[in-house]
Amino acid sequence: MPSSHGGIQLHSLIFLHVALIILSPSDAVTLTGSSEYAVLGTEFTLTCDVPDEASLVQFYRRPNVTTTVGGIQVAGDQCYNSKASPAVPCTPDVCSCVTSGGLGTVFRWIIQPQTGDHGSVWYCTRILPDPSLESADYTLNVADGPGTSITLSPSDTTYTRTEGDTLPDITCTADCRPGCTFVWTRPDNINFTVSPVLSLGQLDRSEHGTYRCIARNVVGESTMTTSVTVQYGPSTVSLTPPTVTYTPTEGQTIPTITCSADCNPVCTYSWTKDGQSYTTGSGLQLTNIQRGQGGVYRCTASNGYGSDVSVNVNVIVDYGPGTSIALSPPDTIYSRTEGDTLPDITCTADCRPGCTYVWTRPDNTNFTVSSVLSLGQLDRSEHGTYRCTARNVVGESTVLTSVTVQYGPGTSIALSPPDTTYTRTEGDTLPDITCTADCRPGCTFVWTRPDNTNFTVSPVLSLGQLDRSEPGTYRCTAWNVVRESISPTSVLIQYGPGTSIALSPPDSIYTRTEGDTLPDITCTADCRPGCTFVWTRPDNTNYTVSPVLSLGQLDRSEHGTYRCTARNVVGASIITISITVQYGPGSSLVLSPQETKYTRTEGDTLPDITCTADCRPGCIFVWTRPDNTNFTVSPVLSLRQLDRSEHGTYRCTAWNDGGESTKVINVTVKC
Question: Do residues 321 and 389 lie in contact, with contact meaning Cβ atoms separated by under 8 Å?
Fold first, then answer.
C-alpha cells in the first residue's frame, strides 16, 4: 500500500510537471478582441491564438461553461463551423482560421455585441489534440456614445446680458465610453474651443448668438446649445443704398432708402425731414415725388439701450416750369394798329434748376434768348403769335401771346390773274378774277360794274360766258376799318356781225329791165371791232370794198346774186340780194342747124331744127306752118318724114316781156 501510494504520488508529480511544461507562457492559449472597444451591432472578432496548433477550438461566454458560443474545426486545410450541425465551411461573416498541415494556429470567431454585452467574460479552449487547454478570460468592453447624458453646468440654456457684463464659465459634461472629447462652436459655426468649458468673460455684441457644445467619441456625438443674448444700442446707423444726395425729377420715384443699425433688441426707426418728424419705419419711400418733398432727411435708430442718427440724405427735386409759366402784363391778346408801340412783355416760371427763356416769332424763328419780349413800334411783319418757352433739364412749358397788327390794304391790292385788260370774244368764258389784299382785319371786297353799280360783294369777279353788254371797267374795292384801296380791270368784248347784218333799203330782190337805174344799197352790221364790208358780184369776184353797192344803169351782165360780207377778227356774216335784169331775145335768136333752106324729096326725113335765143325771162318759142298756123309751141321743129303738104316757109318766133324775134326756114319738098 505505501508503495502504491508512493507510486501515485510519483505519477502525480510527473503529470504536474508535464502540465507545468504545457502551460508555460510561451505555449499558452490566448483570446483577444479585434479592438479595444466593440460597437453595438457591429461585427467584432474574437481571435483564439493556439501556438501548438489544434484541430478543434471552442469559444465560451462565462458563466456558461458547458454550452459553446462557437467552434472551429480543421479538416485538411479547410476551416469548418462546428457549431452548425453538421459542420459547414467557415464564411467570413462567421469564422475563419489559419491552417498549416491540417492543423490551425489562429482561430477567429465573429460576434455582434448587443446591449448588455459590456463587461461580459469570454474564453476559448483547445479541444484537440489532447490535452484540452483554456485561454485566460477576456473581458469585452462595449463602447457607448454620450447620447442624452450631455449636460451643462450651470444648467441654464438661455442667458440675457448687457454688453460689457461677464458671463460665468459654462461646463459641458457627458457619460461616454470611451471618454468623449468636447468642442464649443460659436454662433457662426466655427470652433471656439476644444474644451468642455465655454469661457466668454466680458461680453461684447459680437458674442451674441447660440453656442453649441458637441460631445463626441467613436460611437457618436451629442449636442447641447445655450443662447447668449447680448443687448446693446446702435452705434452706427447705415443707409442702403448709401447714397446721400438724390436729384430726382418731379414725378419720379426714388428707390426705397432703408435705414439699418446693429441693435439688440431690434431698434425702432423714424425719419425726419428738415428736422421735423416725417415717417416711422426703416424704409423711406418717396414715390411720385413732388417739389415740396425736397429737403434733408435723417433716420434715427433707437432701443432701450441707446439711439443713433444716420448721415443726412439730401433730396433735391428738379422740376420743369409746368403750369407756373406766366406773363407780365398777363394779357395774352394785344390788338394794335401798325405804327403803335407795344409795351415789353416779361415771361416768368418757377423751375429747378432755373429755366432759360426763348421768345419765338410767329414764323417759329427765335426772336430773343431772354425772358423779355420787346417789339417797340409795330409793323405788319410782327403780327402773329409769340411763344415764350421756359426750359430746363426737366422739361419745358410754353405760353402764348397774340399780337394783332391792323393795317389797311394800301398798295397790296392785287388781281389774280394780274392782267388789267382782257380782250375776249362774245361767248368766251372769262376766268374768275380774284381780288386780294394784305389787310388786317381782313378786307371786305366789292366789285362794281362799268355803270358803277355793285356787281358782287366778293373778292371774286365771275362773269362767266361773256356777252356784248358786259364790256367796260370793273373796279375791285378792298376795305377794312383802317382804309380802302381800288384796283380796276378793263374787259373788252369782241363780237362779229352775227345776225345784225342788214341792208338799206332792206329789199333783198330787185327786178329791173335792162337800162333801168338801180338805187344804191348800203350794208350795215353791229361789230366790235368795227367790220369791213365787201360786195361780191354774181361771179364771186369782188365788186367793191365798201358797204355801198352802186350799180347805176343796169345791163344784162349785172344780173345775179350780190353778197355783202361784213367781217372783223371775230367772224363774218353775209347778206345777199338778187338783181334780175330782164331783156328780150333781140338778135340772139339762132337756129341749129343754121341752114335756112332745105330741099328734100318727098319721103325724106328732115332733121330736127332747134330755135334758141338769149332772153330774160326765158322766151317762149312757137313754130308756125307755111299757112301761118302754129305748128308747135316748142323751140324744136320736128317734121320727120316729109310729104308734099309740108312744103313751105316755117317761122320760129321767140318772145318774152322784153320783146320778140323771128327766124324763118324754107323747106322745098320735091315730088
Answer: no
pTM exceeds 0.70 for this model: no
Of 126-135, 263-272, 399-408, 409-418, give the lowest mean pLDDT range: 126-135
* Chain segment 608-637, per-residue pLDDT in tens: 999 999 999 999 999 999 999 888 899 999
User: Given the C-alpha cell 465610453, which residue does it identify?
Assistant: 177
- 454, 551: one domain: no
Number of domains in the chain: 7
> In whole angstroms, what is the distance from residue 511 CA to residue 658 CA?
13
Residue 157: C-alpha distances to residues 151, 464, 590, 619 (Å)? 10, 117, 178, 173
Closest CA to 229 of 184, 257, 263, 197: 263
**13 lies in some domain:** no
Can you spell out the DSSP letters for 196-228? SEE--EE--GGG-EEEEEEEE-SS-EEEEEEEE
Taking 70 as the threshold, does the pLDDT of residue 21 lie above it?
no
How many angstroms separate the most distant Cα atoms in the chain? 254
Same domain, 328 and 311: no
Alpha-carbon distance 56 to 50, whole Å? 10
Same domain, 563 and 460: no
Reported as a single tens digit per residue, the pLDDT across 230-268 is 999 998 999 999 999 999 999 999 999 999 999 999 999
Q: Which three cell numbers stand for residue 563?
A: 353778197
Q: Kindly state whether residues 610 and 664 are assigned to the same domain.
A: yes
| Amino acid letter, 550 | S
Per-residue DSSP letter, 587: G
Do 138 and 168 share a domain, yes or no? no
Dump pLDDT digits (tens) for 204-232: 999 999 999 999 999 999 999 999 999 99
Domain-located, residue 45:
yes
Tens-place pLDDT, residues 186-204: 999 988 889 999 999 999 9
Q: Tell me which residue range forms the domain holding 514.
A: 498-582
> Is residue 186 within 8 Å of residue 228, measured between CB atoms?
no
Chain centroid to CA 650:
120
Residues 275 and 169 in one domain: no
Asked whether residue 633 is domain-assigned, the answer is yes
* Contacts of range 592-595, beta carbons closer than 8 Å, 24 or more positions apart: 595/665
Assign residue 367 the CATH number of its domain.
Answer: 2.60.40.10
- Domain identity same for 663 and 606: yes
Taking the C-alpha atoms of residue 112 and residue 38, their distance in angstroms, rounded to an integer, is 8
Name the grid cell of 209: 448668438
